Every structure is written in C-alpha cells, then in structure tokens.
Amino acid sequence: MLKRELVDSVSQQLGDYYKQDIALAVDLILEEMASALIAGRRVEIRNFGSFSVRTRRPRTTKNPKTGNMMHIPARKTLHFTMGKSLKEVLIQQDKD
C-alpha cells in the first residue's frame, strides 16, 4: 500500500476531513516515528506491532564475484515485530 492509498482509505472512512489534512496527519505520525527511532527509542503500536533499531555487528565476508575478502562495517537496521492480534489474523487468513 502506498501512502496515497492510505490517505484515500482513511478519507473515505472519515468523510468529514479534507484529504490534505489527513495526508498532513499521516506525515506527522511518520515523522514522529522516525524521530523516535533515530533517538534510539522503540515505537509500539498496540494490536499492530513494534519497531526498533538494532545494530548489526561488523563482519568479514567473501565477494562472490571476485573472491576477495571484504570487511562490512557495523550498521543499524530497522526491526519490526508483529503484534499478537495482527499475527493471529494473518495465521487465520492462511488457514482459510
């Protein structure tokens, strides 16, 4: 789903608000989530899931094309953990 599709869906459900206002709200939510993650805090949305930043250790690996050993530095990655409610819905959907 694209952000535009999310704004359209929310505006259809709410009806009384302008799309530009809903788009602004979505932008503000995403900016706050990004700010929290950049600051090293965890973002938890009940019944959906949680986002956190994890640090991957530095490692040495072999370039498959050239065979040369290369060093990959430590880096941060985004980790998402599904909430229990979302997980149950997805599992139930697979069974149907």
UniProtKB/TrEMBL annotation:
It comes from Desulfobulbus oralis. CDD domains: IHF_B. Keywords: DNA condensation, DNA-binding. It comes from the Bacteria. The keyword DNA-binding applies. GO terms for cellular component: cytosol. GO terms for biological process: chromosome condensation. Belongs to the bacterial histone-like protein family. One of its GO terms (molecular function) is DNA binding. PANTHER family: DNA-BINDING PROTEIN HU, DNA-BINDING PROTEIN HU-BETA. This is Integration host factor subunit beta.
